[in-house]
Amino acid sequence: MHAWPASEVPALPGQGRDLRIHDTASGGRVTLRPGPVARLYVCGITPYDATHMGHAATYNAFDLVQRVWLDTKRQVHYVQNVTDVDDPLLERAQRDGVDWVKLAEQETALFREDMTALRMLPPKHYTGAVEAIPGIVPLVERLRDLGAAYELEGDIYFSVESDPHFGQVSRLDATAMRLLSAERGGDPDRPGKKNPLDPLLWLAARDGEPSWDGGSLGRGRPGWHIECVAIALDHLGMGFDVQGGGSDLAFPHHEMGASHAQVLTGEFPMAKAYVHAGMVALDGEKMSKSKGNLVFVSQLRRDGVDPAAIRLALHAHHYRSDWEWTDQGLQEAVARLGRWRSAVSRPDGPAADALIEEIREALADDLDTPAALAAVDRWVALQQERGGTDTGAPGLVSRAVDALLGVAL
Predict the structure, then answer these.
(1) Please, which residues have CB within 8 angstroms of residue 394's CB and are 6 or more apart in sequence?
(2) SS3 of 238, please?
(3) CATH dotted code for 20-282
(4) Could you point out which of 153, 181, 280, 350 has its C-alpha 20 to 30 Å from the C-alpha of 55?
(5) What is the pLDDT of residue 290?
(6) What's the CA angle centered on 204, arms 236 and 260, to 5 degrees?
(7) Which tens digit of pLDDT belongs to each residue from 312-351?
């Protein structure tokens, strides 16, 4: 599966700072010091309705992670999956009377268009669950051989008790885990499971549902968590720098994935930091496909909204915060974009070297985009009030905003 085209990232004078970021597993900030190649895995969409502002906010956060790393003169090895076979996708296809494969292809193509318009840097490897099945099957077989998986009525489950580190990603107690498991795709009440939290590794073939040859597992399709594990281990290996996604993925998805990988390899941890973006609400409720209270990037684009303004609307909120999308917030972003573009269109302006360092420091401090926007606002205000004599400043500001914030002026 192919990703989307990359926009050019302008080179800036000097060098960025190492990223200090909140790690869910430790409950505090960690300073990331990757090697020459920083390794990032971000969980992708289930393509039955793409791309709403909750998605955009999440991928915006990890686009910034990449940009901070690139500014430190590192390369980035970024991997993202597409869950192109799963219950929600099959249910939507059945509801709408369309082929599930065509629905997945259609929504994945739209997602690519949205990411391109928003200038999100693409992953090096963009892999669908279906194409990963040949790599998933041997992992499930190995977990079974290790005694970490068991069969229940033809389905294969992972035993969470096989991982001594289980629970160290989300840091939740058993009661909270069970409640979230029921809400987020698990089946804690299924009779016969060794532990209510045990997640599905391989779903045996059901009538009317797609299935694949699973070798000794029989025909079926993979569970949600093992999909990402197979893709991440294949392309990044263990101990990669950041596992990312929305905060609703901390449990069960990232918790279970970490346990799968740790039992498979005997190594700990799967990722050096688990980073989670906050949820976006609309009219007082979390924006979600199940509720249908969605604002789509593609619709905003069709309505003539500049994608750069959409990114500024996202940047106005700290990536870890839960916040609400409003028309007022979008209009404020449109106005800010206009002020910034007017300021950098002048032939000269106030010196910008200090501004670049302010943006770098803000982003290195747990991706503090509101502080970065405030720094640019101050430079723009000076430009409007007093002007300046530095002929290189407007161009430098434009390149910095593009390189570090992904916003083309």
Answers:
(1) 343, 344, 345, 346, 347, 348, 349, 352, 383
(2) coil
(3) 3.40.50.620
(4) 181
(5) 67
(6) 30
(7) 999 999 999 999 999 999 999 999 999 999 999 999 999 9
Count of Cβ atoms closer than 10 Å to residue 28 Cβ: 8
Alpha carbon dihedral 60, 61, 65, 68, in 10-degree steps, equals 70
Residues shown for the chain: 409
- CATH annotation of 293-405: 1.20.120.640
Is the pTM of the predicted complex or chain greater than 0.70? yes
3-state secondary structure 117-169: HCCCCCCCEEEEHHHHHHHHHHHHHHHHHCCCEEEECCEEEECHHHCCCCCCC
Calpha distance 276→61 (Å, rounded): 9
- Which structure tokens are listed for 69? 């790393």
Angle at Cα 377 formed by Cα 389 and Cα 330, nearest 5°? Answer: 140
Tokens 């079926």 belong to residue? 220
Domain boundaries, the chain: 20-282, 293-405
Are 142 and 157 spatial neighbours (Cβ–Cβ below 8 Å)? no
Q: Which amino acid does the sequence have at 180?
A: L
218 Ramachandran zone, left/alpha/beta (phi>0; psi -120 to 50): left
Do 80 and 42 touch, CB atoms closer than 8 A?
A: yes
